[in-house]
Design brief:
With about 350 residues, the chain is α+β, with helices and mostly antiparallel strands. The strands form 4 sheets. It has a 10-stranded mixed β-sheet, with helices on both faces. Strands 14, 15, 16, 17 and 18 form a 5-stranded antiparallel β-sheet that branches. Strands 8-12-10 form a 3-stranded antiparallel β-sheet, with no helix packed on it. The two termini are about 30 Å apart. α2 links the parallel β2 and β3. The protein folds into 3 domains: about 10-130, Thiamin pyrophosphokinase, catalytic domain (Rossmann fold); about 135-205, Jelly Rolls (Sandwich), CATH 2.60.120.320; about 210-340, Alpha-Beta Plaits (2-Layer Sandwich), CATH 3.30.70. The protein is globular and about 65 Å long. It has 7 helices and 20 strands. It has helices at about 25-30, 40-50, 80-90, 110-120, 220-235, 275-290, 330-340, and strands spanning about 10-15, 35-40, 55-60, 70-75, 100, 125, 130-135, 140, 150-155, 160-165, 185, 190-195, 200-205, 210-215, 240-245, 250, 265-275, 305-310, 315, 320-325.
Length: about 350
Amino acid sequence: MTRSQAVAADRTVVLAAGDFPRAGEPRRILSAATRVVACDGAAAAYMREFGRWPDVTVGDMDSVGDSIPPSAVRDADQDENDLSKALALCRRRGWRDPIVLGATGRREDHTLGNVFRAIAAEVRVATDYGEFLPVRGRLAFRTWKGAGVSVFAADAAAKMTSRGLRWKLDGVRLDTPWRATLNRASSESVVVTADRPASVYVERCPSSRRAAVSLGSNLGNRAAYLRRALALLSRMPKTRLLDASTVVETDPVDVPRRFAAMRFLNQAALFETELAPLEFSRRMHAMEDRLGRVRGVRNGPRTIDIDLVMFEGVEMRSRELVLPHPRAASRDFVVRPLREIGLEVGKW
């Protein structure tokens, strides 16, 4: 990699015409998209919100208003809904693993149709209240103990197993669409397996907040230290990883001259946590020690540097912790990875 250079993550969002994402995780996902494929009328909502058309608009164009988007792909097939058409276009163009937003809200029949279409297509759906996660043979995920979890399968003959759910799925006959719904997580780690297309709905934790973290390393096996730090952070109690940027290589900033040639690898990550900011920060710095960071020289080389940049809903200034991070907004090696995952310093 050359200076501050890396290949950005490829992220496709399919925007349906239900409730438009205006805050929280759905909005962040939309902001981080490499491209947006809108379902008919959702294109007009996107234009009103962002002042530009989505990258592609799919449908019969009966709901876009007076202006047809310049990227429109007209498809008048009435046997398929617009979400089906958008997902088919993604497959044809090789845009893998799209995330569906705006699939719920407004009309309940559209919500049900979109959810079951997403199950068949094995794609992820994010809403204001939770996520539908595709089960591609095996799905392992972290959540909060007691989270509402529902499982849906398009085929009643599907065979499923589970670990970490209050009521196990092993041997359950899915003879009705609601048979495996209204379950609860009995552990922070859950595993569901299925031999046919299925989807797991996971409720968002109402007491959790998001924490944005910046990671850097300029000593030893830098990439390995970033991977180990991210793994340790992801395993903190009552915490789960939501997203991580690609890794960029950057020149050091404000370091002693003798270390100026020791370049950094940097990354940003977003977590959802029930921990308080100080506890999160203390655990984070304990991980730095565990990964061999030595603090003898100010701004000297380090195996790992982990900074808590923002904590949702929190502004604080104490001897131990200042939020948002006071220097983050002026540092490109922090700002650019955060932007890749849809975040701006000081803004949620």
